[in-house]
Amino acid sequence: MPSRLTFHAVAKEFPGVRALDDVSFAAEGGQVHALMGENGAGKSTLLKILSGAYAPTRGTVEIDGHPQAFRGTADAIAAGVAVIYQELFLVPGMSVAENLFLGHLPARHGVINRSRLLADARRHLAWIGEEIDPDLPVGHLPIAQRQLVEIAKALSRGARVIAFDEPTSSLSAREVERLFAVIRELRARGHVILYVTHRMDEVFAICDAVTVLRDGRHIRTFATLAGLTVDEIVRQMVGRDLKNVFNHTPRPLGPPALEVGAITGPGLSAPVTLQVAAGEIVGMFGLVGAGRSELLRLIYGAVPPTGGTIRLDGRDASLATPRDAINRGLVFCPEDRKRDGIVSVASVAENINLSARRHQAAGGLVLNRRWERTNAEQQVAALAIKTASLDTAIGYLSGGNQQKAILARWLSEQVRVILLDEPTRGIDVGARSEIYTIIQRLAASGVGVLFVSSELPEVLGLADRVLVMRGGALSAEFARTEATEERVLKAALPATT
Amino acid sequence: MSTRPHRFQIFWDRAGMLVVFALLFAGCSVFVKGFFQPVNMESILLSVSTIGIISCTMLFCLAAGAFDLSVGSTVACTGVITAVVINHTGSVPAGIAAGLGAGALVGLVNGLLIARAGINALIATLATMQVVRGLGYKVTGGKSVGVINESFFQLGNAYFLRLPVPIWICLGCFLLFGFLISRTTFGRNTLALGGNPEAARLAGIATVRLQVIIFTLQGAIAALAGIVLCSRMTSGQPMVAQGLELDVISACVLGGVSLTGGVGQMSHVIAGVLIMGTVRNAMNLLNLQTFDQMVASGLILLAAVAFDRLKQRGAGR
């Protein structure tokens, strides 16, 4: 009998963010159900709830009519759920067979029964139709085969609901066909298959139904793809108007502040050329993995480019390191603040003064303590950073206030151009608009701004000009007046083949 | 989660282990016979001066998220080099310069291996520890080298303002490196590097150069300690200071310096060094056997680390 997976008014709230808002829909067994939405639409959160990694704030997940209350991923596995993520959870140094039965290896008195292990492994590998030696370490397999091992692992645990999170992102065309064959086999067995993807061609190639999420809400479920078009799905994925929160006012543009000429490097598939004028805000959109962060890091010198030129204020600038960039007035706010931005054990004041203090220190060495105090106080006041004191460890602050502290770090320098990678990622709505205001104020003072965002409304609302990246190259450029959600999103999505 | 660092919390972070030391000191003064005597005080300070000097730069290594196992070998090797050079040239300054230079070179190599070649600090300094120890033996053919020029003995044995010179050198290091860690870009950048290397790099800190400087300093300061020790012993001995690196790291950790980097103050180091010296001295006065002393030292270190964990949990980290 085919299985059935139902979400009943599932909601998930994090402090300051509502990631999912009363999502209800059903996925039938014997069907491949596509789950679509922009970055941040709530797909990942939904998968995490399904896998038991998150507990929903409200609502229930039902499998075959039985409400489930997963207290952890082990519960979900026991209930027959498997989620195949982009990064696979296999132990590279252990053999395929050991990975398949990780946690319940066939053993007597703790001694592993190797012949049974290998025989069981062969049996489970047989039906995914691939010749994989169960004795080989998983680390020696190509990604595509590891994925198949992960699927076999799920099935060996009796999975009836299998969710795929962008499974084809690192597969070749032939490998995709192989994977699709396996997925069709799963479908024929009556399993529920949830398929998260950005690729329209895949939706039409393998899926039977589509559910679209947007801003954490369920927008629509199409029970059949008959008569459905790419444009219609895209419209459901965007379809909203948030432009007015940005208070966009035209600013006079100055001469080019940043000129990037045919830059190449890791993460880019083609040389990138772009310009940002003084006082201009350029927004860069693209899907996750389109190479936007990589581009910013190359420009900043955080990763050395393999070719190309960078000019700042019309003068050649060879930026070998971030330090060079900062000295020339080019600064960068990274996407992952915890990992790349803040020193979480250090105080708010330390984090703000980290860079600019060297100009003030006597001989570049002995700190100017009065300046340090004054600067930190001024920045905290000017950017309205909410902190108990200047000496509070910055790790205690909210994401928004951490981001403001990093902005404060750069506002303490002589900034000409600022690069921002996902400036509002993980930041609640109130702090977001404050950060937009800071960015606009920076531009009004003549600073060139280049920001990357996965959120269309943010890009369209804030930017004077929109660049789109796809597959490691610039794919489109729109003036503010030409940039519509449909156009931008379409330029970002992989070409339909 | 409380976001306001309480005044007491700040005080406790900064001086908690100094308070522990004060209590320990008071306890020993009351209960251990012969402890609270001027002569004994001097002997405590003198006994920890070598560890104290080296722990100053070890603080920087630990704060930067690394550590250096080669300091014990460097102490021995540079002492030997100093002795040999003095005997050959007849010049004390030349000997001292050679010793310091050799120590700085060891540190420079460590720094380059770790920061440039990206070799794990444990492995890199474990390797140089053995190499340098071996070189020390090679220089003398495994024997001690008595220094002929007696004016060199002043450095380790003379008194200045009623205290032996090594104690003054140690105090000088405490002051200098205490200033460097808290009041200079060098010190703050070191803490940022240990707290989050990638954030430090993206904030424009030249992290590779910084690490090389830290290790080079560590080598030079270990050499300073080695030269002073050589002078105290009136000879360069290639077998001394075995396991000293662990004593130094123990002292730092005992005082509350974090092994994960990003956190460290000179007051921690001073407290750790003094606690270590006091405990050892008290155990000697109580006539504890060497083996019992080793067991006790290990247990005290564990207790200190457990105490620090507790403190950090209190701070909500």
Largest sheet composition of chain B? 2 strands, antiparallel
What value does the average pLDDT of chain A take? 89
Assembly context of the chains: heterodimer
Unreliable runs of chain A: none
Please give the radius of gyration of chain A in angstroms. 25 Å
**Within the largest sheet of chain B, what's the order of strands?**
1-4
Number of strands of chain B: 4
Topology order of chain B in helix (H) and strand (E) letters: HHHHHEHEEHHHHEHHH
Our count of helices of chain B gives 13
What structural class do you assign from the helix and strand content of chain A? alpha/beta
Q: Tell me the number of strands of chain A.
A: 22
Q: In a few lines, what is going on in this structure?
A:
The complex is a heterodimer of chains A (497) and B (317). Chain A has 18 helices and 22 strands. Chain A is α/β, with parallel strands linked by helices and 497 residues long.
Would you give an account of this structure?
Chain A has helices at 43-50, 73-78, 96-100, 114-126, 143-156, 173-188, 200-206, 230-237, 292-300, 322-327, 337-341, 348-353, 357-360, 369-382, 399-411, 429-444, 456-462, 485-492, and strands at 4-14, 17-28, 31-36, 58-63, 66-68, 81-84, 107-108, 111-112, 161-165, 192-196, 209-214, 217-222, 256-264, 272-277, 281-285, 307-312, 315-316, 330-333, 417-421, 448-452, 465-470, 473-479. With 497 residues, chain A is α/β, with parallel strands linked by helices. In chain A, the strands form five sheets. Chain A has a six-stranded mixed beta sheet with strand order 6-9-10-3-11-12, sandwiched between helices. A six-stranded mixed beta sheet of chain A has the order 18-19-20-15-21-22, with helices on both faces. The two termini of chain A are 35 Å apart. The mean pLDDT of chain A is 89. Chain B has 317 residues and is mainly α. Chain B has helices at residues 7-31, 38-63, 71-89, 92-116, 121-140, 154-157, 165-183, 185-195, 197-202, 207-233, 244-255, 266-285, 290-314; strands at residues 145-146, 159-160, 163-164, 235-236. Chain B has a two-stranded antiparallel ribbon. A two-stranded antiparallel ribbon of chain B has the order 2-3. The longest helix of chain B has 27 residues, at 207-233. Chain B is globular. Chain B starts with 6 loop residues before the first helix and ends with a helix. The A-B interface holds A 300, 302, 321-323, 325-327, 332, 334, 339-346, 350, 354-355, 357-358, 361, 364-367, 369, 387-389, 391-393, 395-397, 409 and B 1, 3-5, 10, 183-186, 188, 191-192, 195-196, 198-206, 262-263, 316-317.
